[in-house]
Amino acid sequence: RMPWIAGMIIVALAAASAWSGTPETLSQARDDYNHGRFAEVIDLLTKVADDSAMSKDEARETYLLLAKASAGKSFNEQATVYMRKVLEIDPGFRLNTKVEPPQVQRIWFAVDSLRAEDDAASKMQTLAILYFENNSVADREAMDGLSKGLAAMLITDLSGASGIRIVERERIQY
Questions:
Q1: Is the pLDDT of residue 36 over 90?
Q2: How far is CA 52 from CA 48, 58, 172, in A?
Q3: Among 157, 137, 136, CA closest to 147
């Protein structure tokens, strides 16, 4: 009975410290990156990148090093995926562009600008403009053109406004 309990304790301790090699792994990856060994960084960190035992800071640094090493190998699509992952983990993250090489900067600016566009699009107000109803008592026929004309004028004027998205009448079910 005792060996079984001891075995369970060992398994529990091993699971709790599954990512105990983080400082050494990240230190080795940093060293490899600084010496231009990008393939080694990618090989080392892709094995541990999805480890749920990593802290937020460790995960951010892991994906950032993967992005930088991938950019160094000209794997720009993969570098973009990793840079997006960095921003998912830490939305407030800012890359120090003064110390990063141009290829890393290009990927960072592309990912960051897409994020800014997504943020702006999510904050836009949506407006639908329908035809006006002609409820005039006198000269009904003379006012009929205004029902579509006023709507068209509003659409034209508001389509240039920032922060407002105009929805087509055809897309509205009323």
A1: yes
A2: 9, 11, 44
A3: 136
